[in-house]
Structures are given as structure tokens and as C-alpha cells.
Amino acid sequence: MEQKKLYKSRENRMICGVCGGIAEYFNIDPTLIRLGGALLACMSCGTGLLVYFIAAVIIPEQP
Question: Which residues, in sequence order, are bridge partners of residue 61?
């Protein structure tokens, strides 16, 4: 069985491709991940944005 790896998406990207990559990893619609990320960013007083940009630095590009 092939092991799944998390990558930033090249096709489903709006800013850095983090939400698209997470959606491809879990095989769900990227819009749901983006809405969840937007809610997290608003509800956490900006901590969600910090987490997003840290993920953008840490998660590698799709080969």
C-alpha cells in the first residue's frame, strides 16, 4: 500500500496551496477547508493566520 504524504497543491491553490493540499490529502472539497480556515482565523484573533503561514513554510511543494 502506498503511503500518503501531505503536499501543497499546485492545482487547488488560492494563496500558497495549503488548504488545497489538505483537501487533496483527505479527499474532500477544498472550499470546505478554506471556509474552516477562514472561520479559524476569525475566531482565534489571528492565530489561525499564523498557523496557515507556518504550514505554508513547513509543507513541501507537490513534486
Answer: 8
| Per-residue pLDDT, 46 | 82
CA distance 18 to 5: 13
State whether the Cα torsion 25-13-53-61 is positive or negative.
positive
Query: What is the distance between the alpha carbons of residues 57 and 26, in angstroms, rounded to a whole number?
Result: 20
Q: Give the C-alpha separation, 10 to 1, whole Å.
A: 24
H or E element: which one contains 38? helix 30-43
Q: What is the pTM of this model?
A: 0.85
* Angle subtended by helix axes 18-26 and 47-58, to nearest 10: 80
For residue 48, pLDDT over 90 is answered with no
